[in-house]
Design brief:
mainly alpha; globular
């Protein structure tokens, strides 16, 4: 059976290339999407949008580079 892999732990957008390269099933962010990077603060909608856009772009790039050449 296939095991799922989750990565977490003070992740930042700078870690994204490594994260994408590892191809985890789940990437958990907490402080990375909170105001001032402090998880005791509320969620920062702009940070969530930035992560979302970066992941969407990275996923597309990973998908395109993983396609077999014709």
């Amino acid at each position: 059976s296939r095991r799922m892999v989750a990565l977490a732990g003070r992740l930042s957008l700078c870690d994204l290339p490594l994260l994408i390269g590892l191809r985890p099933d789940v990437v958990a962010v907490r402080s990375a999407v909170c105001a001032q990077g402090d998880r005791t603060n509320g969620i920062d909608a702009a940070a969530v949008r930035k992560w979302s856009a970066s992941l969407a772009t990275s996923d597309a790039a990973v998908f395109e580079t993983s396609l077999p050449s014709s």
